[in-house]
Structures are given as C-alpha cells and as structure tokens.
Amino acid sequence: MTDFSKDAKIFKAFCDTKRLTILDYLKSGEKCACVLIEKMNIGQSALSYHMKILCDSGIVTARQDGKWTHYSLSKSGSEYASKRLLELTTPNSENQSNCCK
Fold it and tell me: Model confidence at 32, in pLDDT bands (50, 70, 90)?
C-alpha cells in the first residue's frame, strides 16, 4: 500500500486562501516574516501557523536572520508537488477495472 502522508502535507498547503496568498507573494522572491505580516494584515502567530504548514510540505524554506525568519519558495519542493499532482491525476489504463462489464 502506498504511503500518501507526504502528499497530504503538500496538498494541505494548497487548501487555504491565506497560504495561497503567501505563495503568491513568495513568487517574487524571499520575504521576511515582518513583510508578510504587514502585507497580509495578520498577526505573528497566524503567520507562524501557515508558514509551518508550508515549510512542512517542502514547498517553502525558512532562513533565520537575527530575530526574523525569511521565507522563500523551494524549487525542488514545487517541482515535486507538480510531479505528484500529475501522477495522482493521470489515468493509468493498465489498472482499469473490468468490474460490472
């Protein structure tokens, strides 16, 4: 049986409008948490919650600089997420069931 726990973390990262907004901001490059807090008009604890999910998925990486954390998109994480979405949604004709025929 396939373990989909990594896939679940990836797709959880995409199922919230705030996280999608964060990803959109990060497309233009690394952002400090202070910038994301200001742009999104959310508190530090709310940002931390969303960033933990994004970082756990592998789509975003974090870098500590003094008291602030800087976030950026992970090229390898994004590529892996794209690959898995394609793999999971591409029909496999070899495994088509002949049930009820």
Answer: very high
0.85 surpassed by pTM: yes
Which residues fall within 8 angstroms of residue 94, CB to CB, at 6 or more apart? none
Nearest to 74 by CA among 90, 56, 91, 95: 56
> What amino acid occupies position 6?
K
Asked if 69 and 63 count as a contact pair (C-beta separation under 8 A), the reply is: yes
H or E element at residue 85: helix 75-89
Query: Three-state DSSP class for 84?
Result: helix
What type of residue sits at position 10?
I
Of 83, 38, 35, the residue nearest 59 (C-alpha): 83
Q: From residue 72, how far is each of 20, 28, 91, 94, 97 by CA, in Å?
A: 13, 9, 33, 39, 43
